[in-house]
Write a structure and sequence with these properties.
The complex is a heterodimer of chains A (457) and B (399).
Chain A: H1 9-37, H2 52-72, H3 86-97, H4 99-115, H5 117-120, H6 123-140, H7 144-150, H8 156-185, H9 190-193, H10 200-225, H11 250-258, H12 261-282, H13 298-322, H14 349-355, H15 357-363, H16 376-383, H17 385-404, H18 408-414, H19 416-442, E1 449-450, E2 455-456
Helix pairs in contact in A: 1-2, 1-6, 4-13, 11-12, 11-13, 12-19, 17-19, 18-19
Chain B: H1 8-18, H2 28-39, H3 41-50, H4 53-63, H5 68-74, H6 79-86, H7 96-99, H8 104-116, H9 124-130, H10 144-150, H11 170-176, H12 181-190, E1 193-195, E2 202-204, H13 207-211, H14 220-226, H15 229-242, H16 244-266, E3 278-280, E4 291-293, H17 297-300, E5 302-309, E6 312-319, E7 330-332, E8 337-339, E9 346-347, E10 353-355, E11 364-369, E12 375-383, E13 397-398
The chains are: A mainly alpha (457), B alpha+beta (399).
Chain lengths: 457, 399
């Protein structure tokens, strides 16, 4: 008997309810679609229109049948047919287990989110995306390993977060695109047209009261349904494997993989906080106060969302679902094998540089001891000189170059001081993805590595 | 003087309380006084002087120092003046007015005791408080602004000396000059209206007198005051020591210091429940060639490794603390490496880092072959490879 069965009776039972809820949701949506779109929706590229409501009706019917199948199949889970096939799981695993592909995928998704914003904010498209993700979740639940990760009480809020963040982003883009169109057509903004005022008491206070009650109910049921993830008593000699930070710090923990603790734990978080506080002083764009807009603030919104989605949310997802024992990468359907071997022989930039055939031949490899000027410190600095030069170029020379070329517009508007602050903050933000990619692609450990002084970049 | 101006409320309070009651506000006694005055203007000065009864009541004991006799000389003004000055209502000789505790507001603020202090203009401190206006003549201390601002400090020296009658409440003089309320407020703020000491007639004083308080000139009063600086200093010191502010901050500092000491003491416990830093781990034969022993990991936090380093078989004790962020790595027998579960740092059997973010090799602890043939580990010493300390003979035992 398989100790880790993909499907059990209770899983089938739960999935039956899940599909039933999906069915009810789509039934409502079918009715809504029939009322709004009519029998044939004209708002489609296909000539003659698409019978949108009919498609939703068919989907609802399928969901109802799937739900019924799950309820009736609870007696024989081993032979149950609706489960993810291996030919689907394996490529997905390969995609997620390779951080290069995963990170590139998150960048592409980010780009698509900005680029196709007019498209995916539409009701039908957004609903399709939501249903697609929910059905994907339900199907994936039929996999044992996926269920172990996603169903862990620790990780439930992260799954919820993904949906909530998507929803809020959708609201933003929907309102912003609406206002963009209004500005283009010279109509008043949505916020100006609908600026009806309501009273704090009772309108706002009642809303808050209702939210408070609902939130309390959710928390109580959550507390009853999901056990607190308590573990054995802590021991200084036994670290859980993998050892994960609270989910909201997983982005920070991921940064620690690529940087020295003082950098990833102190400097970078400090720069994140300081940079967020500096935004109002750097921003010279006065538009967008009090209303949603994208085009007027495209640069600001894109920069912020880049820091938020690929560099924060995506890293939380990476840390939660993809990091396994020994902090290796695992696909979402992959077994957490403690003995998974991952080639991770990391080398410092200095080792790359001095080991390079031409340089090695001329200078005889990496300087050691007090070979240079008879001083160990001078030798050490010479050893790390390639990295030091690179860091200097990056933070001291690159900003002026950017200001005179690509970002000239910003330089002119901001003035020298604000521009230097801005460009350095932007460069610091870019440090993380650069280092991640270098690590994954070239196994680069540190650009400057001076363990003697605890100074590693 | 501090640069803050009296608020409008203060000034209005001064106008209403300090001046002679306006006709329309006249209470019974004022009405009586005016009635008496009408019949005999010259004599009425005395009752009127003592006779702003309201003022006296307000002024408390200090106000009581006003003697009708002192007021008398000044009361010799022509009736016309008096009528003009008093507005015909509670008409009082202007000069007598201050004697009657003319700045009742001050006296109320100062309390009875303050008002009783005779050499008010004398002590330098008081003069400073009062704005130093009283430099040449204590009487000048009565610049209206100072009286209002100075509060208790501006002592109505008038009570002792009739000459100081010049401390005339500005309001009276202002009133006497027939100014409107707004003008009076303005004047009081600027402090330009003062009273002539002799007649109580309003007189324009040089604004700079108020704006730039002069240092006390070596006048009569200053000489007097010079006799008591020591006593004043002691009183000042006592006042500082006894002030609630000092007590509050003092007790705060004391409490903080006490708790800091308690914390410092907490850092040095009487009994330290920690494993000994030196311990025997059995004979070298317990650790076969090429093995990593994890049996002391839980108790002492060391791995005992028997491995070849640079072709030489050694036994050494590796610390189980990851050099990245201090987690405890695991020994993976299959992969022959130490692997940290927190951020994926990996170390060879020798302790040298090769993967993940760990910047330097694991640390060795001191180890030696004791006299009884047992290996002894000393956790109080550590040897770091990047500092060249692994060459130290105390960091390994040759097999």
């Amino acid at each position: 008997m398989n100790p880790h069965p993909d499907l059990t009776s209770s899983v089938l039972h739960g999935l039956g309810w899940f599909y039933l809820i999906l069915f009810v949701m789509n039934l409502w949506w079918t009715a809504r679609s029939y009322k709004l779109d009519g029998e044939f929706s004209k708002d489609t590229p296909i000539l003659g229109g698409v019978p949108v409501a009919t498609i939703w009706a068919v989907l609802s019917a399928i969901l109802l049948m799937v739900s019924a199948a799950h309820f009736t199949g609870t007696s024989s889970p081993d032979t149950f047919l609706i489960r993810l096939p291996e030919w689907f799981k394996n490529p997905v695993d390969a995609f997620f287990a390779d951080p290069k592909i995963y990170f590139a995928g998150s960048l592409v998704l980010f780009w698509a989110m900005i680029q196709f914003r007019e498209w995916w904010i539409k009701d039908t498209v957004a609903w399709s995306l939501l249903q697609g993700s929910l059905i994907f979740l339900a199907l994936s639940m039929s996999d044992y390993d996926f269920r172990q990760i996603v169903g862990k009480p620790d990780n439930v809020p992260i799954v919820a977060m993904l949906f909530i963040v998507s929803f809020l982003t959708w609201i933003y883009f929907r309102r912003a695109c609406d206002n963009d169109r209004r500005i283009e057509e010279g109509r008043p903004l949505f916020e100006q047209e609908n600026n009806e005022k309501v009273l704090v008491w009772p309108d706002l206070v009642y809303t808050e009261l209702i939210c408070m009650v609902l939130l309390t109910v959710v928390l109580v049921f959550w507390g009853i349904a999901l056990k607190a993830p308590l573990e054995e008593p802590a021991s200084s000699v036994k670290t859980p494997n993998p050892s994960k930070a609270p989910w909201y710090f997983l982005g920070l923990q991921e940064m620690l993989v690529y940087f020295d603790p003082w950098l990833a734990g102190v400097v970078l978080p400090g720069i994140i906080l300081g940079g967020l506080m500096a935004i109002p002083y750097i921003d010279f764009n006065k538009t967008g106060n009090g209303y949603y807009v994208f085009k007027e603030r495209a640069f600001a919104v894109t920069t912020f969302l880049f820091g938020f989605f690929p560099l924060w949310i995506a890293l939380i997802v990476l840390g939660t679902f993809l990091r396994g024992p020994n902090w290796n990468f695992y696909g979402i359907y992959e077994v957490w094998d403690v003995h998974k071997v991952e080639a991770a022989n990391n080398v410092n930039l200095s080792e790359f540089f001095w080991g390079f055939p031409g340089i090695s031949a001329i200078y005889g490899g990496m300087p050691k001891g007090d070979a240079f000027l008879g001083s160990p410190v001078a030798t050490m600095l010479l050893r790390e000189s390639p990295g030091i030069v690179l860091i200097f170029l990056y933070f001291a020379v690159l900003p002026p170059i950017l200001g005179l070329t690509v970002l000239r517009k910003y330089f002119v508007k901001m003035g020298i001081f604000r521009f230097l602050v801005f460009s350095n903050l932007a460069l610091w933000m870019a440090v993380l993805p650069i280092k991640m990619v270098l690590r994954w692609a070239f196994s680069l450990k540190y650009i400057v590595g001076i363990p003697e002084w605890f100074f590693n970049i | 003087m501090s640069g803050d101006k009296p608020s409008t409320d203060d000034i209005l309070a001064k106008l209403r309380g300090g001046g002679a009651p306006a006709p329309e506000q006249a209470d019974d006694s004022a009405a009586e006084a005016s009635a008496a005055e009408e019949s005999a203007p010259a004599e009425s000065a005395a009752p009127a002087a003592g006779g702003s009864p309201l003022d006296q009541i307000r002024a408390g004991g200090g106000g009581g120092a006003a003697k009708p006799a002192e007021a008398k000389p000044a009361a010799s003004g022509s009736p016309l003046d008096q009528i003009r000055a008093g507005g015909g209502g509670a008409a009082k000789p202007a000069a007598a007015k201050p004697a009657a505790g003319g700045s009742p507001l001050d006296q109320i603020r100062a309390g009875g005791a303050g008002a009783a202090k005779p050499a008010a203009g004398g002590s330098p401190l008081d003069q400073i408080r009062a704005g130093g206006g009283g430099a040449a003549k204590p009487a000048a201390g009565g610049s209206p602004l100072d009286q209002i601002r100075g509060g208790g400090a501006a002592k109505p020296a008038a009570a002792a000396k009739p000459a100081v009658a010049a401390k005339a409440a500005p309001v009276d003089t202002a009133k006497a000059s027939g100014m409107s309320a707004a003008e009076m407020i303005e004047a009081a703020r600027k402090g330009v209206v003062t009273a002539d000491p002799a007649t109580g007639e309003p007189k324009e004083a040089a604004p700079k007198k108020v704006a730039l308080p002069k240092k006390p000139l070596p006048g009569k009063a200053a000489k007097k005051a010079a006799e008591q600086p020591r006593r004043d200093f002691l009183a000042l010191l006592l006042g500082i020591i006894c002030s609630p502010l000092v007590w509050a901050w003092g007790s705060l500092v004391a409490a903080t210091a006490a708790s800091s000491l308690a914390i410092a003491r907490f850092m040095m416990p009487n009994v330290l429940v920690e494993p000994p830093t030196k311990f025997k781990i059995g004979p070298p034969t317990d650790y076969g060639p090429g093995t990593v022993s994890t049996k002391w990991k839980a108790q002492y936090g060391v791995w005992i490794v028997n491995a070849e380093v640079d072709g030489q078989p050694l036994i050494y004790a590796l610390s189980t603390v990851c050099t990245h962020l201090g987690c405890t790595p695991n020994w993976l027998e299959g992969e022959q490496k130490f692997k940290c579960p927190c951020h994926g740092s990996g170390f060879y059997k020798t302790g040298v880092n090769f993967e993940g973010p760990a910047p330097r090799p694991l640390e060795r602890h001191g180890i030696r072959l004791a006299e009884d043939g047992m290996l002894e580990v000393d956790k109080s010493i550590k040897f770091q490879k990047e500092l060249g300390q692994w060459e130290n003979a105390s960091s390994f035992v040759s097999v």
